[in-house]
Amino acid sequence: MTKPADLLVKHGVVLTLDGQRRILADGAVAILGDHILAVGQSAELEREYAPCRTIDARGGVVQPGFVDCHVHLSQHLGRGTIPDLWPESREHEQWLPYWTQINEEEARCSALLACMEMVRNGTTCFCDNGGRFAGELNAEVVAQVGLRGAISEVCWDQPPHPAVAVGDTDTCLRRLEALARAFPKRPDACVWAAVSMAGMGLCSDRLLVEGKRLADQLGTLMEMHQSFGPEDVARYRAHARGKSAVAHLADLGILGPNLQLVHMIHTVPDEIPLLATSGTSVVHCPAASTRMGMGVSRTGRMPELLRAGVNLALGSDSGNYSDFLDVGRQLYLAATIHREARGEQPCVSAEQALEMATRNGARALGVDSWIGSLELGKKADLVIHDYGRPEWRPGLDPVTSLVYSAQSSGVHTAIVDGRIVLEGGHFPHLDEERLYQRIDQAARALYTRMGWVPRHRWPLL
Ligand SMILES: [Zn+2]
Asked: pLDDT by residue (tens digit) across 396-442?
């Protein structure tokens, strides 16, 4: 007697990322509603289930969707505006007018572009650091595209410029609490709120401590930038009165499994055991660092963090830093830049990089019981790659192929919460062309108001 299922994905090379890291050469995944019913051999699951719909993966890799632990939905229209050789000290030349002049429609278009790009590149869950407008705006867009993710609102009571102030400490905390109560983190919610902090030096100690208390009370995550560039490091050293940043956070009592520190390019050795013993996650954003020359390959201690048992995940950061939201490209960089800088093999292995992009990301967001691997009972968040492309051949080792040769443009299908949100590389429920036109119009309007002129070094005729 066969059992009902909504969807059976079969004949794929299934990278389960489960406890044993099983890879099924001719594997299948059965889905009912929003969750996984079974993962096994295709022949077995074909006998066992009578699905409403079947997808033949035709030898393509089937993987748990990527988890992008750090993005800025509101800044994606800023892509392409930062020239090469752009020191951090000039950040405000682009960022400040963008931040102060963007309107709600433009912020919506920015979020739409970011969410579509993530899905198109195989990301099914993300964490946003928050923008200028109410979190509800992003929540609507995330639901429209069909992603899973943590939203927030920007929070700083010591902003980098008076024009971007969002209020005093209590105002920041009230906004975060209201959002977290409106979007509670629970398994049936695809969108929930995290407590996002801009980072040490931009947030007072009281804001950090009370924000963390709020995250603890509401069972959600707190995330914050930390130790990114030279100016950031100078800010936190002044703030922490000479102590290391992580030692200061430990003194404040806010380290823990529901805290993720983003970047940590300038980690010092005595911070590593504090991160490991507290269960604090670190989000490595290699493209944001390499694009801006911030030094993660030179000074980053990501291999040491992994060796110490720190949960290390991946993030794409923002359109005006890394220029793209693509975990597939982040994991290539995560696997390669440290071995290139140090001349050590493997430093970070392909398998470790893939774990960072899936399981570790889920753990960093506190949703590892829902997603991050393909296992019975977990949410049906998965991606199917198209094997009918040259970069996948000869397909001798699916992990090596996925990390080193696969391209995100080869993502064929993405399924989130049991729903097909990308099929054949397109969004079945969205009018893509119309949306791209709307996004272009919004960007042009914003950049006209900002007076931003592209700086072409080659003649544009
Ligand atoms: Zn960021």
From this structure: 999 999 999 999 999 999 999 999 999 999 999 999 999 999 999 99
Among 320, 345, 364, the domain-final residue is 364
Distance from the CA of 322 to the center of ligand 1, in angstroms? 10
CA of 245 to the centre of ligand 1 (A): 17
Q: Is residue 44 part of a domain?
A: yes
Q: Does a structural domain hold residue 442?
A: no
Measured in angstroms, how far is the CA atom of residue 455 from the centroid of ligand 1? Answer: 24
Cβ neighbour number for residue 382 with a 10 Å cutoff: 27
User: pLDDT for 391-400, tens place per residue?
Assistant: 999 989 999 9
Judge if 393 and 245 occupy the same domain. Answer: no
Measure 150 CA to ligand 1 centroid, in angstroms: 14
Domain that holds residue 399: 3-64+372-423
Compute the distance from residue 71 Cα to the ligand 1 centre, in Å.
6
State the distance from the centre of ligand 1 to the C-alpha of 244, rounded, in angstroms. 20
Stronger pLDDT, 93 or 271, i.e. the higher one: 271
**Three-state SS at 144:** helix
Angle at 402 between CA 397 and CA 407, to 5 degrees: 135
Separation CA 81–CA 87 (nearest Å)? 14
- Give the integer Cα–Cα distance in Å for 129 and 73: 8
Residues 14 and 114 both lie in one domain:
no
383 and 358, same structural domain? Answer: no
- Inside any domain, residue 246: yes
How far does residue 318's CA lie from ligand 1's centre (Å)?
6
Residue 94 has pLDDT above 80, yes or no: no
Q: Is residue 136 located within the same domain as residue 233?
A: yes
